[in-house]
Amino acid sequence: MGAFVISKRYNDEYKFVFTSRKGKVVFTSLSYELKFECEEDIERFKTNMQSANFLKFKSSSGKFYFKLMLGDTHFATSRKYTTSLRLQKGIDEIIKYGSVSEILDFSVNDFIFID
C-alpha cells in the first residue's frame, strides 16, 4: 500500500508526495504555506478520488509524466517515467491505493541522533 508523506521544502513551505508500495515517489503536490492545508488537501483527494483526472504529457527529453487534476484545479505533478507503460502503472497505483493510504508526517526536522 502507498503512503502520503508530508515534508518541508527548503523555503519552509509544506508539500506531500505519494509513494508507491516499493517506496518510489509517484507524484509531488504543490506547495502549501501551512501544514493543515496540506493535510486537508490529502483528505480531500482521498474522498474525491473518483473525480481525479490524469493529464498525460511527454517532455522534450522523451520522458512521460502526468498532471493530477481534481476538478479544474491542478493538484500534483508526477515524477518522470521512461515509458508510457510505467506511467500507466503509476496511475494505476494511485487509483488502487490512494483512498486507503496512510499519512506520514516528516515535516518536523528534529534529529533523532544527537551528536
TrEMBL record:
This is Uncharacterized protein. It comes from Flavobacterium xanthum.
